[in-house]
Amino acid sequence: MRIVGGRRAEPHSFPWTVAILKNERMHCGGAVVTNKHVLSAGHCFKWDDFKSMKVLIGLDNLDDLSNVEKRTISNVVIHEDFTSTAVRDENDIAIATLNHPVTFGDTIVPICLPLPGEDFADRVGTIAGWGRMGVEKSSSRVLLKASLRILSDEKCMQSQLAQHLKPTMMCAFSKGKDGCQGDSGGPLIVFQPAGKYVQAGIVSWGIGCADPRYPGVYTKVSNYIDWIMQHLKGGEMCN
After folding, report:
1. Secondary structure string (H, E, C) spanning 195-235
2. Which residues form the Peptidase S1 domain (predicted)?
């Protein structure tokens, strides 16, 4: 996953998490936000042709695709202010439209969106994905998960990433755990007291993997609610 130090997720316990493959290889993660839209990172599509990608929905094990919905992508909208430097991506958010809607059920459920401006400082978030299990390691065949503490903006600015950070980004860290290449675009989710999961962040960038000096950096979803809603034309959402 971008998941270093993660553990096996109970199959289908994150039914919104999707795998985006490019030429049959793990490329990025994403989250189902409506029955025809996936929320992911801008950098997952900026330099790659989405026509060469396939989305696996309701997936647990990459070696068993028997009950998995497979879709191609008919359109991608990357945030118009997306920019990239050697170190970081800014406004790193994109919405992919599936070629054909999916039907919600036990293994496919949309993730809920946070309130505009909602702050998740000091909450525990969870990432899940099939990305690499370490800087030099291969990607995972089964869904892995890791719990991370979301840092306040102040704490985030005390890390060695400070000069690269923007208010539209958030940091999360737990000792020995992180996202790694291949979980890019996947959701960082938080369980709300009301009993539902919401997507607080999108796996965006980091330096190395699970390095204590450099927490993982996520796109702050609550900053982009208006933008997201504008691009979800139709589609059934989480209620």
Report:
1. CCEEEEEEEEECCCCCECCECEEEEEHHHCHHHHHHHCCCC
2. 3-233
